[in-house]
Amino acid sequence: MDWESFKRLRGSQKKAFFMRDGNIYHVIMAQQFDRGFLDEICNLATRIRQIAKSNEGTRFLLSLLQGRRAMLYFVQPSTRTFLSFMSACQILGMQCSEVRDTSTSSEVKGETPEDTVRTFSSYVDLIIMRYPEPGFAERIAFLLNNSGRPVPVINAGSGRDQHPTQALLDIYTLHRSFEDQGGIDGKKIALVGDLKRGRTVRSLAYLMKNYEGVKLYFVSPPELRMEDDLKEYLREHEVEFEESEDLAEVIPQVDAVYMTRIQDEYDLEGESKRIDYSRFHFKVEYLQLLKPNAIIMHPLPRRQELPTEIDQDRRAVYWRQVRNGMWVRVALIAKIFRVGGEIWHY
Q: Domains in the chain: how many in total?
């Protein structure tokens, strides 16, 4: 199949392409994950955390992927995702290289990004990439699959479109937060803010098809509503959702509030400045409206939409999300390189 034909396939149709011998290989989009995989990754991440608490366990984890090499190709700004992937690789004993600025690569000389990444594949066993163009990680995975040296590709953020590993750590955070309350099934989740351009909320919303009885509330300015393709996907998979512009009205109804900042890096003509985003800030007084066992999430970085005073509330779990991200990514890399069995048998 050529690239143009492959690109036109639906996400569910591409899933097999991202597998190898029945195991996950490339991590490109949230639609490729099913409930079994999500449960397995959550449980494996928790097991890894337990093992890492002892010096002996840390040494065991370090031995799993010694001799393997990873390239972190991050040409879009990143703090948490980059550092958590770097740490995840190091926990498993992988050596890491990085390119974070195309001005230091041969792209300055006119080399295409595709040739640049294909060069990386000659030296490493895993490519983790963040790129501003939607679909670029998918194109690279397709290219490498048809090359003489296919290596796994992990999409660490592609434009406004997808951020699948953020969705995994968000699921893990929800899983751990509600493990004594029936899990994620049946929960009501508010996704708040810039839903049109927020790849984290898109990827998380895609995963909701894997859980029973979940209801989503899309709370945003009218100019920044969730786009129709995602809403049609949810309707097709019978995931209930409703849209609102009243955050205070939605908060008492939900079990989780997922806040996001305005994504003004995607502005063309400063259009974000014309939007009253203050109506979608989580005010300190909203804590009185929130259920006692609900949680507040945020992919970070934050701005005024989430005051620092809220950090002291036990329901604020966004710093826990950051920590969870590293462990989920350890579990994901372990799964890609098929050392999960060794971890369970340790």
A: 2
User: Dihedral sign, CA of 300, 196, 194, 263?
Assistant: positive
Q: What is the pLDDT of residue 323?
A: 96
> What tokens were used for 135?
């679909």
For the chain, 346 residues long, the average pLDDT of each consecutive 10-residue run is 88 87 92 95 98 98 97 89 97 94 67 88 95 90 87 90 93 97 97 91 96 97 92 96 96 97 70 78 96 96 91 96 97 97 97
Pairing of strands 188-192, 153-158: unpaired
Same-domain pairing of 299 and 337: no
Query: Of 211, 170, 165, 160, whose CA–CA distance to 188 is shortest?
Result: 211
Regarding beta strands 215-219 and 295-297, do their DSSP bridges make them parallel or antiparallel, or are they unpaired?
Answer: unpaired
**Domain CATH for 45:** 3.40.50.1370
Give the pLDDT of residue 134.
Answer: 87
pTM reported for the whole predicted model: 0.93
Strands 19-20 and 23-24 come out as: antiparallel
- Residue 257: which H helix or E strand, with range? strand 256-259
The residues carrying an active-site annotation are: 80-81, 109, 130, 163
Gap between the Cα atoms of 226 and 136, Å rounded: 22
Range of the domain at 16: 3-159+324-345
The pLDDT score that the predictor gives to residue 264 is: 63
Both 232 and 339 in one domain: the answer is no
| Residues paired with residue 217 on neighbouring β-strands, in sequence order | 190, 242
154 and 168 in a single domain? The answer is: no
Look at the block and give the residue holding tokens 């701005």.
Answer: 303
Handedness of CA 267, 168, 253, 318 (dihedral sign): negative
Is 42:171 a contact under the CB 8 Å cutoff?
yes
**SS3 label, residue 46:** helix
